[in-house]
Every structure is written in C-alpha cells, then in structure tokens.
Amino acid sequence: MSAVFVRSIGIVSGAGTGVERLCSALADPAWQPRIGLDRPDAPPLAVVTCHDFSAKDHLPPLVARRLDRPARLLAVAAREALAGGGTLPSDRDRIGVTAGTWTAGTEALFEVLRVVFLASPDEAPPMQFPSTVANAPASQLALLEKLGGPNVTFAEKQVGGLRAISEAARLLTHGRADAVLAAGVDEAQWLNAEGFERLGSLRRAGSPGMVMGEGAGVLLLGIEGGPNPYARILGAGSSSAVAPPHLYPGTGGALLRACRQALESAAMKADEIDLVVSCSNGIPALARIERDVWQELFRAGRPAAVAVTERLGDGAFGGAARAVIAALLVSGRASLAWGVPEHLADLASPLPTSAPRSALVVGQAGGGSAIALVLTAP
Amino acid sequence: MDDVWITGIGLLTALGPDRETTWRRLTAGETGIRPITLFDTTGFRTTLAAQVDVASLPDPQPGLLPRHSTRATHFALLAAREAIDDAGLRASGELPWGLVFGGGTAGLFEAEDFVARRLRHGPRARGLGTFLEVPQDAPADRVAAAFSLIGPRLTVTTACSSSTIAVGRAAEMVREGEVDVALAGGSDALCRLTFAGFNSLRAVDSEPCKPFDRRRKGLSLGEGAAVLVLERADRARARGARAYAAVRGYGVTNDAFHMTQPEPTGAAWERTVRAALADGGVTPEAIDYINAHGTATEQTDPAECAAYARVFGARLAQMPVSTVKGALGHCLCGAGGIEAAITALAISRQTAPPTVGFAEADPACPIDPVAARGRQVRIRTALSCSFAFGGNSAAIALEAVR
Question: B162-175 and B335-349 helices cross at what angle (nearest 10)?
Fold first, then answer.
C-alpha cells in the first residue's frame, strides 16, 4: 500500500474536548474517566460519556441546534482536525469523509419509536427521522464543511473506526480524493448499552466486561503530509472469522491474518514494530485472542504494548481513538503514563521513554471482523 | 477491461423468492406493492409496500438459519445461497472470499417489539435475543457464518446507496487481487421505524408509486435482498463460468446540499455519474441503459433526470432509463444491490426492464422510462445509480462481457 499521511487529528472523548485534553489525560497516571450512563428504572450503565461536551462552545448555535449528538461530536472533532491540517485542497469536492460507527442514530431511532409506540404512528417526528441513519454524522459533516468527496460510513461494531481509516487511505491511494477525514464516532445511548449489559458483556461491579465509549476521533489523511504531519499509515490488513454477531471468535486467526497483511503491505517485519496499541476492552475472551496473536506474531520479540480502550471506552470511536493515540505517540507529541495491558504484561516490553517509531493498531469486533493498521513516525 | 465478472446472482424481492421469478414478473410489468400484513398500518398515509411473502420462503439449507434469525438475515442467506449456486461455486470449508454488504435496518423489525415492551414494562422486558441482530452488520455476519467466509468483511451503511457502494467496493477488492471471489449486495426489511419515518416526511404515495410520472406523489417502501458473486475474469474463464456482466467501475460522492432533499439542478448527481464513468474508463456515449434511482418523489425524479441530461445531453431522450421501484418498492439499503443485479440481468438478456407504475410523461423528466413491459434493446454498458439520505450518492458501471 502507498503510504498516506496523518496530517492532523481531532478528538472528543471522555477526557474532554480536544487533543490537548486527551494528552493531559494520557500523561496523568491517576486519570480515570467518568463512567456511568443513566437510564430509566435501573442503575447506570458502564459507559464512558463525554460528560462536559458542549457543541455550543465550538459550533455556531444555529448549527449545533440542527445536529444530533453524534453529529455534533464528529463536527467538533473534525473542525479541530481541519484547523490543524494546513492548507487543504481548494476543490472541496476532492475532500472525502469516512466514518465508522457502532451506535450513531440509536437515540434518534429510539425517539421515533417511542412516539410511534407511546403516542401515535402519525406523530413520528420528521426532523429526527433523518438522524436515524448511521451515516447521518458523516453526511452532516459533509453538509457543514461543504465536502463533496466520497462519503462512506461503515458499521462493523468495534472495528468500524479502524475500517474508516483504512478505507480512507484506500480512497486516497486510488485517487478518489485528495484529503479524507477518517473518523470513528459513537453516542452513549442507554437502550443500546442495556442490551450489552443484559448479555453480560458490560462491566459490572465485581465482574469483568467492556466499558462502552462515547466520542469522536478524527484523522485528517492526505497523500501530502502538510506542514506538520503526525504519522504515516504504511499498511492495513483486514480479515474475519466466523462468529455470531455478539460474540468474539474462538481463536485469533482473523486478527493474526489482519496483522500479517498490515505488516506485509507496509513491507515491514514484526520485529520492526515498536508498539502495539491493544484493543483489549476488559472482556476476557478478547484478551485471550490478543495474547494468542501476540505469541504467534512476535514469538520471541517484545514490542511495548498499551491498552487505552478500557479507559476511553470501546466501540467504533474506541478504534479511532487508538489510532489517534498511536499518531500522537509516534510523532512524539504525547506520552502515556498508564495503559500497560495486564494480559500482555509478561510478553511486552515496558513503555519506551522515547517516542516509538512504529505502531501496530489492532481491532477485533464481535461477529468476527478484524483490522490492523501500521503507523510510523512521519 | 472486463477483469471482474458477475458470475452469480441471488435475488429475493416482493415479486418472488428468486432471481428468475423476479425477472420474469418484473419484465412482464407486474408490481409487488400491495397492502402490508407485517404490522398494523392504522394512522399512516399509506397501507402499501412491496412486502416479501416470508411464509413462501424456504430455509436456505437445513440448519442454516440462526435461532434468532430476522427477515433481513433470512433474505440475505437465501440470496447468498442462490448466488453461490448460480455461480457454480462449491461453498465448503473455510473460504477466503470477501464479503461486502450494504447494511440497513437489519434486525430492527424484530427488535421493535422488544423496544415497545421495554418502554412499557421496564428493564425486565423480554425479547433481548432480538436485540443481538440489530447492528447493521448482523446480516453480513450471519452470511459469513453460514458459508464460512473468512476474508475481508465490510458493511457499508450509507442509507439508500449502501449496497451500490458495496458492489463497487467488492469489485475493487477482486480487481486488485485482495481476494479471488467476493460476495456483494445487501438486504433490508420493512419495519415500523422506516415506515413511520417516511410517512412523517410525507414522502410516500398512498397508492403504488409512479416513478417519472407527472402524477407521482412519493415512494413505496419495499424489502428484499440481492447478492452478486464477483470473480476475477481469468479465474472465472478458467473454470468455464459464464458472466452476466463485468463491473467496470463505480463512483461515490456527497451532494453536500441537504440531508433529505436533492440538489435540484442535477449538478451534484452529475458528479456521481461522471465519477463512475471515469473510474471505469467509460465514455457517456458508451452508456445504453440507466437503471435509475427513481424513487417517485416530487423533487427527486426531476433532479435525477437533470443530472442525466447534463451528462448525456440530447441522447437522453432516446436512452432507456427505468427504475424497479414501481415493482419492487424502495428497498433502501438493499436497493442498490437489487438494482445492480437487475442491471446485470438487463445486460446479459439485452432487455431493459420497465418502469412499472409509469403512465403519463412529465416534462420535468424527459427520458424514455420503458413503460409497461420490458423491452429488447442493445445494451453494451449500463449504469445503476443510487442517491441517498445525507447526499450519499453512488453509481456503478456494468458492461457486457465479450
């Protein structure tokens, strides 16, 4: 794969709005997110929310008012990325958007159904219906920023954000766009999270599990690096395994294939990877998969490993956030004071004191899709 | 350049449970739009949709349907089964095939009952199992599981253009040697959410829709699935497979105009069409047929025709341009796959399918909509176009295999 540059980044996460807030959280060993999403008639759920996010601080009030929450999250993160990306192509039809989402549209969907079931079908709110489609945040972003390039949203549960990034790189290398905003975006919605809680997938007191995450992570990608690039995306790999939609596969075969493809397309060997950004999310089955893959891929090699998803929350956003953090780390613009994954503690090297030159960012979704990206210093 | 062939087609629509039934009834000018029995339509502007008769559908193969199977998954599995069989491929053992699907409402119809119970009865409401199939990629996961597909698996969700993009992207995957074979398409099922939503937008016709007709008042919703088997041409030739058509290229753009309204001059969709032509190295003069989006809404049909006029000029008036939505309804995220399948059939059978429901020409839609019945025409290269909510537009160029 031809390399593409990460020209800039933007993020809204449980750490706050903006890259600076994220970097502060990464550097603080004591930082913990606020976990807890309220729902009717039952205790809060294990979801990291962007509790202090206010779109009005970043978008004109009239714009903020017409967007639903995931579209606001994405718009604010994208504006940060666009502001830091240097001069963009003057032809806005050559700027694309790719997004991955797990949960966007759920709140709008719930609201429409609530009216249909509790009031009357003919009272369904027309203003909310367009927000029920998962592509609404990416489409709203195109509208807001007048971006007429390719605009594609992917739904692949936890790997949607990484898919958006690898597909953005593909759009660029195929000449379909000159710059692409690649994003993962999720909203915190109680009904959605409650489903996973009842499945036993969500963390509860005394039992391990996933913490879902709310937020938007955006990477502005280009064939050109711009004035101050963060990283290069050198390789991407994608594979899958057979599993029901809500379960992880029984083995790490898909993730291993994805990692090997990513390394091959980057023309790199496993021992050239300095850092693995783990997709560990608190679910033991996923930790087992990652451990198996690590042993097969690196054998005696010992890159460092970080796990940020257990604190920032999992989802399509979680994958994009891992890529944002990888870009920050390989560019030397952030350091991480926490996040050594327990399940890899005996296999990985300690976190490097200097910036890693290369990072392997991995993702494994329930249902079987797996993706890996190789990022290097610019 | 005919390097990616469509060697198998599976199709399931309101007109029939398989490819041949759908094609036969479509080209005969029949419609599958009829009163909905799936849910109560009291209070809605319309009581009609192109609903699939699930009771008549077979199990794709014994044991293939999962316990919590949904309509969307059932449709997808049947279409995939038919496509693989049609291509003459043996699906046994783990297969490194790609799978690119357009993801829509997935298991939402089934989960809506759970949502209603949760609203009324609180957190102990029964029916959680239906919730597992709600993610848009659940049908793709189930197809992959049923046929042991372990290649790249993507679910595109761009509303009504989802599975057009899926077919284009899958063809790219095959063309570049990422995989030898890819399944591409989409599946979508009727549900209360979309029905209520389009009703609330006043975008539905109380009668069966009438695309490109001056009396048109809106769309009719539908459901169904299509799966196309895409193969590298050299591989397909070597095993003696026949091709319906070759995939030349695809284009994807965003209108950046409005979430639900079309850009009225056609300039935005002109870009989409030109992007598909450029990707496939096809000139406008080579296009003999367009399978149009043709939703039959007041504003969309003229905007679409305006886009074609900008690309094809005076030729447009003589070019057959038809839409299947008067027969199959608007199948939303499944529509693009269904329409790509119909376009491939149109090429291989040199027959333009009709615009069912069209009777009275509209000066704002200066096209030849192929009224009443299918028509024998020469089709070397054809376009299938989809224009979606959010301005997510896509077009795909297919070509006859020489």
Answer: 60
